[in-house]
Amino acid sequence: MLEITGLGHSYGAHRVLEGIDLKVGEGELVTIVGPSGCGKSTLLRCIAGLVPPSEGKVVLRGAPIDGVPDDLAVVFQDYSRSLLPWLTVRDNVALPLRRRGLAKAARRAQAVEALASVGLKDAAGKYPWQLSGGMQQRVSIARALAYRPALMLMDEPFGSVDAQTREDLEDLVLQVHRAQGMTILLVTHDIDESVYLGDRVVVLARNPGRVRDELPVTLPAGRDQIGTRADAEFVRLRAEVGRLVRGVVKDSEAADALDAKGGASVEEPVKK
């Protein structure tokens, strides 16, 4: 579905990303997590065609991305700025469908269907400012779903809502993913969220941003906020991702690095 090869990006003299190689399969939900400043959002913007990378390439379904592709939708963190306050909820969701060349009636019908899938069918005639923050983010997700993209990118989409709403929205994403089989790439700073949602967790390191490791998530598909988070495998994966994000290396990794460098000190500190 998506193949990223040798991607690097700089803002002037500041190197943000370097040597990113990543593949995402059809129907996969991949989460990207890493420390603050590792270039997660920049990577997503390069994939979306919003920022041309300084080097490397991004290929979606065999076609190189050199602008915003037609088969892609993005859900941003700041829902309050991504919804137009003078349009109804239904018309906000229907707006991108003009690009599909659909008639007005078809656009509205598709928008209502997408709103129903996120539990907001009854809010179609309201305006964004009449809804709570969590409901506004549901509208943003519905807008992406209505477009029926091959790939949905989500840039820390739940970072601006409260904890309970965040859990509800996480479960909504899992529900949508199971029901539609959509390919989703989600960036988050939340370690627990990366494990709870992902089929695979990609951990980035910083200075400059690069892929440190990829961890498959073998948790059952039917996840829930209480049972899954108490599962021993979830706890193990959360600890492993946390270790990688914080740059902590195991004694065995430190020994391998020392051997490779002929006894020289390793790049990152060893902590037990």
TrEMBL record:
Species in which this protein is naturally found: Actinomadura physcomitrii
Record bears the keyword Iron-sulfur: no
Protein name: ATP-binding cassette domain-containing protein
Molecular function via GO: ATP binding; ATP hydrolysis activity
Domain ABC transporter: 2-231
Keyword ATP-binding: yes
The entry's keywords: ATP-binding, Nucleotide-binding, Transport
Entries under InterPro entries matching the protein: AAA+_ATPase, ABC_transporter-like_ATP-bd, ABC_transporter-like_CS, ABC_transporter_ATP-bind, P-loop_NTPase
SMART domains in the cross-refs: AAA
